[in-house]
User: What shape does this take?
Amino acid sequence: MRLAAGRTTEYAAGLLGLGRTKVSNMESGIRAVSPERIRIRASNYDCADQAYLEGLVAMADSRTWGWWDQYRGSLPQGLLDVAESEWFSTRLRSLQTVRVPGLLRLGGYARAIFEAALPPLPKSEAELRVAQRVQRQQALERENPVGYVAHVHERALRMQFGVRRTPYGPGTT
Assistant: This one.
């Protein structure tokens, strides 16, 4: 909202009586933000989208620990943001041309992708990412699941990751 309104971090800090760093941390999800502060900012940023505003307020108001918080400090914030956004969404749509969508990846598929990452990830971080990726599927399995439509190109279904293993060793026949 702040960027769309053309406002600076200093402006937001002045509105809330906080330092710039605290505002930056709130915007990046490191620091919690109260529903009142969201409403103050929305009114000063001329946010007319009530559905968007109420969605942000609901997320802030229900700020309890989500399953993704167990990975805080261990995985990049972006991965946690995606999981939290999926959890609070009412519907999602995905278009994939090269890989199976993240919400539909099973452990072995996710592991093969993370093990092939460049630069290589340490095994412990790859395993954390696999565990977090599989847990994201809770958005589809919970009592009131998110509506999800995924369009997947055939190429994504046929793409192979990892090394073919045979009784004689990797890649041999």
